[in-house]
């Protein structure tokens, strides 16, 4: 039987799909230029006059370059973990801040400090990664048993679990007189980043590469457990792999930088609004916009009350909370009014 169709409409639809999945488009190249520009501004932003001092170039490579590189890697990591978590939970409001993952990482750091006085960065990262993985698995097991799966219930469960873990961490910090560890972790800042203290963030590049390899299977997992299994995907193993990659990225950022709220919520939602839910084609966009967002917030944190510096988590949390409320209101808006 001959199919009736309009060639122009079909070809136009195929072109739009092809164009949407392309990575090297004019908007993407423009976004790269904007992010590079923000990186250059970050390199030359600060109180110390690197051009007027004899050791200016030394300070440039000891502090400014590592800080800018750390901003890029951290922004990509947190935005990427938010994208993966939203995909496998089928929920736009899920990210490490709203699942308790970041609070579990803080608890892991506290345990490392209790067991090993004056721990190395590798020990802190290991503790944060292990506890992040445990916390993320507990969250997934918890929501798997909850039948009411509305878009609001899932992040509320995560926020509840995160609040409990945060309370446990605070109590332990006060009981063992290590509250300075908790306070330092809650204030996410790049002010302490310098050469020799950020290089482990390069592991995030490996994590990104692995997520790109698993991108198609993670996209299928985002269709639901039943659909993924019917298409030949080992759903449970894939969830373990995804949680492991998320734990590595979050643990490294928590150990090196600290708590960076809402970055994994803002960026993936913005990208999904314009490009859909294909992880493979969205991942470069998410990483790039994550870099630009955190770099812009850091520049603001360094200049808003110059010569002093505001923690970047304060700027990021303020922007993220507004976007979080906007997303909530948008989801509650009746479909006929959209």
Automatic annotation (TrEMBL):
TM spans (from-to): 28-48, 68-88, 100-116, 122-143, 152-178, 198-215, 252-271, 283-305, 311-329
Pfam families found in the cross-reference section: FecCD
CDD domains found in the cross-reference section: TM_ABC_iron-siderophores_like
Its membrane topology: Multi-pass membrane protein
Record-given protein name: Petrobactin import system permease protein FatD
Family membership: Belongs to the binding-protein-dependent transport system permease family. FecCD subfamily.
Source organism per UniProt: Sutcliffiella rhizosphaerae
Subcellular location: Cell membrane
InterPro entries per the UniProt record, alphabetical: ABC_BtuC-like (IPR037294), ABC_transptr_permease_BtuC (IPR000522)
Record's keyword terms, sorted: Cell membrane, Membrane, Transmembrane, Transmembrane helix, Transport
């Amino acid at each position: 039987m001959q199919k009736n169709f309009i060639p122009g409409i079909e070809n136009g639809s195929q072109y739009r799909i092809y164009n949407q999945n392309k990575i090297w488009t004019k908007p993407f190249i423009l976004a790269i230029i904007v992010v590079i520009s923000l990186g250059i501004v970050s390199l030359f932003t600060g109180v110390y006059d690197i051009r007027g001092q004899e050791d200016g170039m030394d300070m440039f490579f000891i502090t400014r370059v590592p800080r800018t590189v750390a901003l890029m890697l951290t922004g990509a990591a947190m935005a990427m973990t938010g994208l993966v978590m939203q995909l496998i939970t089928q929920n736009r409001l899920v990210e490490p801040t709203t699942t308790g993952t970041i609070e579990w990482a803080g608890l892991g750091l506290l345990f490392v400090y209790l067991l090993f006085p004056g721990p190395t960065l590798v020990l802190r990262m290991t503790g944060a990664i292990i506890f992040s993985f445990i916390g993320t698995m507990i969250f997934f097991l918890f929501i798997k048993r909850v039948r009411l799966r509305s878009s609001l219930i899932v992040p509320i469960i995560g926020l509840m679990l995160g609040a409990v873990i945060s309370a446990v961490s605070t109590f332990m910090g006060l009981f063992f007189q290590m509250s300075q560890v908790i306070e330092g972790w809650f204030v996410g800042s790049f002010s302490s980043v310098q050469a020799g203290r950020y290089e482990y963030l390069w592991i995030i590049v490996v994590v990104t590469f692995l997520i790109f390899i698993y991108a198609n299977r993670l996209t299928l997992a985002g269709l639901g457990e039943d659909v993924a299994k019917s298409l030949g995907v080992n759903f449970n193993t894939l969830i373990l792999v995804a949680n492991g990659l998320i734990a590595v990225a979050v643990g490294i950022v928590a150990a090196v930088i600290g708590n960076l709220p809402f970055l994994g919520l803002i960026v993936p939602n913005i990208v999904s609004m314009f490009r859909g839910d294909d992880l493979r084609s969205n991942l470069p966009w998410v990483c790039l916009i994550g870099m630009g967002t955190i770099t812009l917030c850091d520049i603001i944190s360094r200049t808003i009350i110059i010569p002093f510096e505001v923690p970047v988590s304060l700027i990021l949390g303020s922007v993220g909370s507004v976007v979080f409320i906007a997303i909530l209101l948008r989801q509650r808006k009746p479909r006929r009014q959209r």
